[in-house]
Amino acid sequence: LKIYDASGRLVRDLSRFILCGGRGFFSHIIWHGDNDLGHKVLPGVYFICLRVGDDVITDKVIKVE
Question: Residue 27: is its pLDDT beyond 80?
């Protein structure tokens, strides 16, 4: 799971926090609006990209404060 800013730059890599599991497995990740250095990022549009095997899921989020 990686978070990118609107210009496509990697902001945060949360891959190390994802747990692998089998059928019925559920997990969630909370992004606190910080980058990989621990600094808060500015409000704006960000893109979340999750790669699972050959599948890629992308969604847009808006950070408001």
Answer: no
